[in-house]
Amino acid sequence: MEKLKEIEMKAVNWKSIREEGLDLEYAVPIPKNIANDIFKELENSLEYFTGDLSKIKVFGKVYPLPRQQVAYGDPGITYTYSGTTVPALPWPAPVLALRDFLVALRGIKYDFVLVNKYRNGNDHMGEHRDNEPELDPTAPIASLSFGQQRTFVLKHRDARKTGIDKRPIPPVKMPSLRIDQSDLKCKNGCDYFGNPQWQGYCSKCHREQMQRQRKAEKESSATLPKPEQKKPDRGLRIPSHSSFSKFEEKRLRQSETLKKANLLKFSVFKKSSTDDHDHSAEKRPPEFKIPGIVNEGMKREFRARFPQLGPAVDRDSRLFVHSFIMDVIKCANVLTVDELSERVQRQYQRFMKHMDTSSHFANVEADTKELLMDFVEKHAMTYLHELPSVVFSPSGTDDERLDRAMSERIQQLSWVGERHLDCKLHRDSPDCRQLLYKAISELLGMDSALSPGDKLCRVRRCCRHVLRLCAAPASADDLLPALIFTVLKANPPRLVSNINFVTRFCNAQRLMTGEGGYYFTNLCCAVSFIENLTAESLNMDKKEFDCYMAMPASIGGSAWAAALSLCGAAREAGELRAQAHALRTRTDHVHSRALLLAANAQSFEEQIAKKVHDVLAKTPLEIKPRRELPRLGNLKEVNTGPLIDLGTTSVQEELQTKPEVKPEPLAATLLPIPTESKEPNITIQPETEPKLNILGFEVIERQSPSKSPQNLDQTWDLKQTSSLELLTPSPLGFTPFDSRSIDELMTPDEFGTDQLAPGLSNINYDIDLSDFSGDNSIAEEAPKSEPKDPFSPEALRKITTFDPFAPQTSKGFETALDSFDEFSFVDPRKQETDPFEVVHRGQDPFSPVELSKDPFFNPEKQSTSILDDNDTPATACLLPSPIQPQSSKKPT
Amino acid sequence: MCKMKVIEAKIVVLGSQGVGKTSLVVRYIGKMFSKHISPTIGASFFTCNINLENARVKLQVWDTAGQERFRSMAPMYYRNANAALLVFDITSVNSFAAIKGWVKELQSNVPEAMVLSVVGNKSDLEDLRAVQSSEAAQFAASIGAQYCETSALHDQQGIDQVFLNTAASLLKLSNSNLVSSLRSYDSADVDPDKIPTGTPTEEDATHTGKVELPAWSIDSIAHGDVQKNMCC
To answer: Do B8 and A366 touch (CB under 8 A)?
Structure first.
């Protein structure tokens, strides 16, 4: 405090804010180190108002002040705000020193101070105006702030108005928040930067500080052997536990630092405006909603458990659970745990009363009401249990620390055996071990149960196992020691938290009465006994006891631990064995099924084989007829034979082919026959060989279009030549020929020329004999007239156009052929060759003879061909051409 | 079918180790439930229904561990109890002195009225008697309790009477409406015509089952008066 007088007032760097209605000057006149000292002194010396003076009345309601407050001043001064009159206490030394400091700084001697202490981030002061009549309006209000930084918000009063009067004046925030570099430095003043995580120390100083702290704790725990005292980590627990405890420790440390870092906001002599930091209000979610799954779960279980009860009961219970949860969550932050517990119990009673009075529950029996109560409690608490720090080891309680302490205590007492407790246990009997093991697993399961009712149920089951463990007839005298023994061996997680949770939030009626309540009481007794266990309570020598207690916990492992772990292993082995057994039965099943499948498959195969065999036996090889396809080609070849030679050999060929056709199906040698048939042709006209080649190709291609061979055979026999003529184009022109033929109806001349498939060309050739001298030039025009009058002399001319097998005409053909892309591929050449051949043929002396013969043939051919042509449009197109030559001949 | 009053009460058995609390209880329930109870199941907690003239008393009997080392845990047991059986051994003065201690403790720790019954056990050991029955009766009267002597070995009737007396006193207590922890309600599911008094009802509840006892001697003993209310 003396240092305050040494501060150089002139050196203070004043800054100012001037806004409408605001005249503010601020500075940091007290250096950090001095300010810290003052803060400490204020912390130590000031005492704050309690009782009514620590409450505030807002709109007729009384609230606890969200901060601590005390007022000092010259004698006789009071200060009234918000309906509270604050008496001024005599000045204490540190505050007086500050007043003197202000006199030196600003030359104003204040006579009253209100000290506000903000203990943590939730303490605050709302927006207010210092417009009380007692204040001197001419004197400025001075505000001094110590401790942590806080925002100081100034608002214009008009900005708070509503409606028209409201003016959008933005609030002014004191820039004093600006953090000085010195503020960032380590608190130890070692010139390194500090960190809020390390409580403002630099990393090195923080570590040292922590070590000192731990040492101090160690010492304190050594002097006070109470279980509540924090003990140094023994580092002998299982890893998961130790990591958990580490986390615990961290958490605890944090909460401690929070407590340490409470803020003393020292607002001296009335501030000109408010400072508020309603962080807590902002953090809170605006509207909390219970997830629908709670509701759904209740609905489902209600239907399952109380099918006889009406929907009104269902709705009532769900409504209650909803309001109950909401109420607890709302109050959890405000009330202490005990208050909350009371409130919860009142809620239970409220629901009980509701059940007694409401008409919905008129027909519900008392036992069912109790079940409903449990049901409601279960669902509400199951949900609340999962919310962190609301009902299970709530914030503001020591539960978690006590859990750790208890766990360590039990660890330390692991040497306590059944003889110390006078339990009648038969360590050697496997039944006994099994029972103990079961009891322990139930006890361990208590932590995982969510609702108090479920936890109680676990305890009840545990105690029943313990009772069976004791010699019959087991009484309380036996039960309690055995239960203590079980707890010691189980070391259940979060034991204190669980017990407190049940005690606080279980329906009191259930807890006080009933089997569950009785056993739970026993458990509480056991825990209490363990907590306060001494040498006397074990009836043993103090020295021996101390010796045991000094022993590291790891050594204290007893035969029981081994027996229990054996039990666990045995159980696990049993489970595995059962699993293996199940697997084995399954594999056996699969195996038998597989065998069955194999047998089935075999018998099926045999059956099929037998059937096939039968079928084969019934139907000897008749697959050969399929070769008729190539025979078709042969037929055509055979038929082509006459085409080539026309009249000359046709008769012979017919004679030849007819016999040949019949043997074909029998004889596989198909190709040789046509060659034989052609041989005569060749002998007659060696020049036709190229055609034969062509035809040979055709034969092969023929196989693709499938035609019923046998039916046609006879017709073939009859038609032969004519049908051959018709068919020949298709082998040459392939499939496109058909489509072309349709298109070519428009231009029959071209069609005709193009269709100069060998057969046709031959026919034309006949005509050529007569019109050999015809102009080639007319060739293109002529076909147009063709359709008009095949029999007219013009037609003859047209025919001459066909003939132009002379080199000249070939050119014309080529041009015409060029127009047809498809034909240009193959046909032109062949056709070109054809004309030449035909030219040679022109020599044929037989031709006239043929002609004479032709008429004989032709009528037959025509008739047959016409019949065929009618069937297919393609042949219809072809129809005129065969007719023409005849017609042309007839006139000739 | 008429409505029947049902009272639920918790009764705690207190006394030093070795006075025969357990054998008392075992004798009581053993006789009643020989059919139902497997011998391995304990007798530390059980419920029984006692039918009185126009009411039914559901008794929850909490046995306590009598060892001296568990003495400090007793408050957990007798919290919210409506009745207490204070059992002592007539051959042991110390056990009778302990009863006096229990009574003091109950009076200072239990805020609500309780039905107290002082039971001198081991009446079969008359030769070794160290506590005179007159002395015990006098003490019982001074604390407003009833006194009876029993023998867990022979005297089944005495034990039955202890429980019956307690039940009757509890009924009175509930009628006085002074005790809030004593639950009572009307039940429509009990038909007194159907269940003749004295016949055990085969209700499924806890493993210890429930019992109906004959109500023949209510008037003779029922004088367990209300303790003065200790609520502050």
So the answer is: no
The count of C-alpha atoms lying within 13 angstroms of the C-alpha of A684, restricted to the half-sphere facing its C-beta, is 21
Residue A461, token pair as written in the block: 């089951």
pTM passes above 0.90: no
- Across A476-587, the runs of DSSP E, i.e. the strands, are none
The answer on A749 and A721 residing in a single domain is yes
The CATH number of residue A412's host domain is 1.20.1050.80
Could you give the number of structural domains in chain A? 4
Q: Which of A366, A512, A529 sits opposite B10 (nearest CB)?
A: A512
B42 vs A478: CB contact, 8 Å cut-off? yes
Domain hosting A477: range is 399-566
Backbone torsions φ then ψ of A79, nearest 5 degrees: -140, 125
Last residue of one domain, picked from the residues A181, A206, A235: A181
- Give the chain A residue nearest B25 (alpha carbons): A475
pLDDT of A77-92, one tens digit each? 777 776 677 778 888 8
Q: Which two tokens stand for residue A869?
A: 């042509």
On whether both A459 and A361 belong to a single domain, the answer is no
Listing DSSP states for A153-213 in one string gives EE--HHHH--GGG---PPPEEPGGGSPPHHHHB-TT-SSSB-BGGGTTB-HHHHHHHHHHH
Instruction: Phi first, then psi: give them for residue A640, nearest 5 degrees.
Output: -65, -30
- Given B80, B189, B207, which is nearest A365 (Cβ)? B189
Beta bridge partners of residue B84, listed in sequence order: B12, B116
* CB < 8 Å to B43, chain A: 473-475
Domains and CATH numbers, chain B: 4-221 (3.40.50.300)
pLDDT in tens, A616-656: 898 877 666 665 555 554 554 444 444 444 444 444 444 44
Of A467, A476, A480, the CB nearest to B41: A467
Instruction: Tell me, yes or no, whether A790 lies in a domain.
Output: yes
Same domain for A730 and A870? yes
Q: ipTM, 2 decimals?
A: 0.79
Residue carrying structure tokens 């559901």: B58
The reply to whether residue A512 touches residue B69, judged by beta carbons under 8 angstroms, is no
A17 - beta bridge partners? A24
In a domain, residue A636? The reply is no
Whether A110 and A165 share a structural domain: yes
Please name the member of B62, B69, B183 whose beta carbon is closest to the beta carbon of A518. B62
Residue A490, domain member (yes or no) = yes
> Are B44 and A521 an interchain contact pair (Cβ–Cβ within 8 Å)?
no
Residues of B in contact with A477 (CB under 8 A): 17, 21-22, 65-67
Rounded to the nearest 10 degrees, how much is the dihedral formed by the CA atoms of A804, A810, A815, A820?
90
Q: If you measure CA to CA, which chain B residue comes closest to A539?
A: B69
